[in-house]
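Is zinc ion placement plausible here? Inputs below.
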Amino acid sequence: MKNEKFEEDIISIPEIFNKLSIVELDGEKILKGELDIIDTTGKPWDTYQIEIKGSDGYPYSFPKLFETANAFPKILDWHVYEFNDKSCCVDVTPNELIICKSGLNIIDYIERFVIPYFANQSFRIREGYYLYGEYAHGIFGRIQFYQSKLRAKNPNELLRMFYLIVNDYNPERTAFCPFCSKTKFRKCHKAAFAELSIIKDFLYWDGSKQLIPFFTANPDYKLP
Ligand SMILES: [Zn+2]
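Reply from A.M.:
I modeled the complex. Tokens:
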């Protein structure tokens, strides 16, 4: 997907990551080359062949990342969008949207997401599991993400929180939290609500089109 902002942003990348270069592919400029994964003692651990391409939503969503030498299986279980374009899935969508809220910095993206993604893959290739744990896939991954922020006691409470966030819930300073007994809202859930309010359009969509049908179809589902 040709994206002019992306093509402009990648100009400085080869100076910083000197095994990556800008090449033209199907009329768009992309980053292509090698990425070294260095372990904590400074020893080279692995080298990946990668491509980074512009996406539709960039810089308000991640660019597309590809591993091109078949270093690991291109399936969901290895955090690859298996049924889409086989690009790498570096984070769950809601978190991606929060991180990109004021426009992604591509250097930051490579350092904070691309390198850790491949370091995680290298660890799994050697040891058989992910060192830092992982988000589950699809709807389970998103529920896990929301729960890491909101800590709801049950699905209904989670949906009530979504509703309040979407509707800009903003009680008085001294108000108690509707979800935590005897705690001031500003001391418990306020920060998470503020963070997720950045993606309230997505919450509205995810809540009504995904979570409600899922919880309805699985009434015994226990939140993580
Ligand atoms: Zn609370």
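Short version: The chain is about 40% helix and 15% strand.
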